[in-house]
Amino acid sequence: MRFRICNPIHDPDWRKLVEGHQSSSIYQHPLYMEALARTYPHLEPFGFVIMDGNDKYTAGIPFF
After folding, report:
1. CA–CA gap between residue 2 and residue 49 (Å, rounded)
2. Using an 8 Å Cβ cutoff, are 58 and 50 in contact?
3. How far apart (Å, rounded) are the C-alpha atoms in residues 62 and 25?
4. CA 49 to CA 39: how far, in whole Å?
5. DSSP string of the chain?
6. Distance set, CA 14 to CA 32, 56 (Å)
7. CA-to-CA separations, 10 to 6, 22, 29, 45, 53, in angstroms, rounded
8. Can you tell me the distance from the alpha carbon of 55 to that of 42, in angstroms, rounded to the nearest whole number?
9. How far is it, in rounded angstroms, from Cα 16 to Cα 11?
10. Would you give per-residue pLDDT tens digits along the chain (64 residues)?
């Protein structure tokens, strides 16, 4: 298990994680985060992710 910091707006693996997880919500989706970034340009989104042995995202949490 590894940890990583990503940009949830531009990271395609983040989108796959959010769209494929049954417990995700709109608040974790890249489009929502992009809307926040445009509204508040002084803030930059980032996400902490946990990856499995194959570098596939298994969990993540977004922050601004």
Report:
1. 8
2. yes
3. 11
4. 25
5. -EEEEE-TTT-HHHHHHHHH-TT--GGGSHHHHHHHHHH-TT---EEEEEE-TTS-EEEEEEE-
6. 13, 10
7. 9, 21, 11, 10, 23
8. 31
9. 9
10. 899 999 999 999 999 999 999 999 999 999 999 999 999 999 999 999 999 999 999 999 999 8
Number of domains in the chain: 1
Question: Measured between alpha carbons, how far is 14 from 28 in angstroms, rounded to an integer?
Answer: 9
Residue matched to tokens 């499995």: 52
Question: Whole domain around residue 36: which residue ranges?
Answer: 2-63
Instruction: Decide: residue 59, CB within 10 A, 0-12 exposed, 13-18 middle, 19+ buried.
Output: middle
